[in-house]
Design brief:
With 74 residues, the protein is mainly α. The protein is globular and about 35 Å long. 74% of the residues lie in helices and 0% in strands. It is built from five helices and no strands.
Length: 74
């Protein structure tokens, strides 16, 4: 389910999943979503990072971008 959230949800919905995980004490799962989001195409990553930024979740936005940077080889 978390893999699907990370790879298929619209950008605006990914922060909702991460917030729900963190609220339930599932921090490792929230981090897994953020890590897997970094594997999406570049435009999706930017949109998702922006969605976190709009919610003032700057650390999570940074984790999304850092994950994307680690997964890119070009």
């Amino acid at each position: 389910m978390l893999w699907s959230a990370a790879t298929r949800l619209p950008a605006r919905d990914v922060p909702k999943v991460v917030i729900a995980c963190r609220s339930a004490g599932l921090n490792d799962e929230a981090d897994a979503v953020l890590t897997n989001v970094g594997r999406r195409d570049a435009q999706a990553v930017i949109n998702i990072a922006s969605a976190f930024h709009e919610r003032r979740l700057y650390e999570d936005a940074g984790l999304v971008l850092a994950s994307a940077a680690r997964t890119r080889t070009d």
